[in-house]
Every structure is written in C-alpha cells, then in structure tokens.
Amino acid sequence: MRVAEKDPARLLCQCGCGVLQSADESPDLESLTDREREVLLALGTGGTNRLVARRLGIAERTVKGHVASLVSKLGLVSRLEVVAVAILHHRRICPNPKWNGTPP
C-alpha cells in the first residue's frame, strides 16, 4: 500500500483534486459539537477511524458515528470530503495552530 492510500490528508494536499474544491464552499462549522470538532481535526491529520479512536480515547464505532454526523451536518457525501474540510478549514475549527488533533 502506498503512503497516499494510508494518509488521505496527504493525498488531498498533493493532488488538489475536485474534492478540495467542492469542500471549499464554507460549510457550517458552527453547528458542530465540541466532540465532532475534535473528530474532524483528528481526521484531518490522517489515519483510519481506529487510529482516530485511539487518539481521542473513544470507540471506533463512536468515530464512525461522528463521521456519519459530520457528513450529514456539513452536507457532504463521503469521509474523504470530511477530511478535505478538516484540511481546508483547520483554522476555523481550531484557531490554535499548535493543536495536532490529539486531546491534552
């Protein structure tokens, strides 16, 4: 498996594909809960649902539920678009540039 296949955030940054353009339509991030924001940021750093769950100390099934909620609330179609939103709108989600998606 190539690195890009393991790390969707890196793939999106490298290719600049249509997903980035469609995700750049300023989604309503204000409607997200604090936990949804944490999951969104963690997804933006790359990794599987399992890895995000470990980082946040929650169950993988809970991450899947949050991803489904993010897709719905942000008017997206896929997890890949959620990752694109996380990358494009990182500063709006979490204004602290030192935060890496892992809770303290």
Query: What does the main sheet amount to?
Result: none
CATH superfamily: Winged helix-like DNA-binding domain superfamily/Winged helix DNA-binding domain
Gyration radius, in Å: 13 Å
Structural class: mainly alpha
Order of helices and strands: HHHHHHHH
Distance between the first and last residues' Cα: 31 Å
Strand portion: under 5%
Mean pLDDT: 76
CATH class: Mainly Alpha
CATH topology: Arc Repressor Mutant, subunit A
Q: Uncertain segments of ≥5 residues (pLDDT<50)?
A: 15-24
Count of DSSP H/I helices: 8
Helicity, in percent? 55-70%
- Compute the number of structural domains: 1
Please report the total strand number as a whole number: 0
Q: Please tell me what the overall shape is.
A: globular
CATH hierarchy: architecture: Orthogonal Bundle
Primary descriptors:
104 residues, mainly alpha, Arc Repressor Mutant, subunit A, 62% helix, DNA binding, DNA-binding, WH-like_DNA-bd_sf
